[in-house]
Amino acid sequence: xxxxxxxxxxxxxxxxxxxxxxxxxxxxxxxxxxxxxxxxxxxxxxxxxxxxxxxxxxxxxxxxxxxxxxxxxxxxxxxxxxxxxxxxxx
Length: 90
Description:
Blueprint: E1 16-20, H1 25-41, E2 45-49, H2 54-60, E3 66-69, E4 72-76, H3 81-89
Parallel strand pairs: 1-2
Antiparallel strand pairs: 1-3, 3-4
C-alpha cells in the first residue's frame, strides 16, 4: 500500500511522551493537559525524566517540557489542549 494511503492510527494506537524534570512548573502544567486529553481519547502516555537520560538532556534541555507524539516532537514549553487533541484525532 502506498504511504499516501496508509491508515491513520487510531488514538489508542498513538503514544504521547512527556519529557520533563522534577520541580518544573511548566512540566506540571503540561502533564495536566496531557492527562486530560489522553484520558478522554484513550491515548497511552508516558513521562521521561530529562535528568535521568543523557541523550534526552542533550537534545531537549532548553525546551522542557517537550511533548512527543509517536516519537516525533509535537511541542515544547506550553501544551495547547486543542492542538494536541487535533494531532491525536486527525
